[in-house]
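Bit of a strange request maybe. I'm writing a small parser for structure token strings and I need a real example to test against, not something I typed by hand. Could someone generate the tokens for this chain?
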Amino acid sequence: MSDVIEKDTPENKKAETKTSLIDVTEAAANKLQAAIDKFKADNPTAQKPGIKLGVLGGGCAGLQYDLKPVDGAQPGDLLETFFGVEFYIHPMVLPYLKGTTLDYSDDLMEGGFKFKNPNAASSCGCGTSFGL
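Reply from user aminoacidic:
Good idea to test on real output. This should exercise your parser:
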């Protein structure tokens, strides 16, 4: 997939850690790795499974985050790797996601994925929807 922009090569690993578009905690990466493992079990021919991170219209604040396992990047997607999990990000969503930290908590109350997005002017109580 030569159209994928890889930011996690040995030549630029130091630059990637300084200029990462997003950040993902180890807890979030571990939970998403479990989703990838299920995806691979359901799709045994998957060649390069990873997580597509995007933004969709909707949610109570106007925009919502989208996380889903996929088999490889689309042409032009940016690739970021955190704790062994590959994330594919379309360049069109960068203005919405740049600087965002993705975390996960398995707390009984308010557990789940949490997005800390410095670009969001507002967000809903569930933490999966935001507005600019």
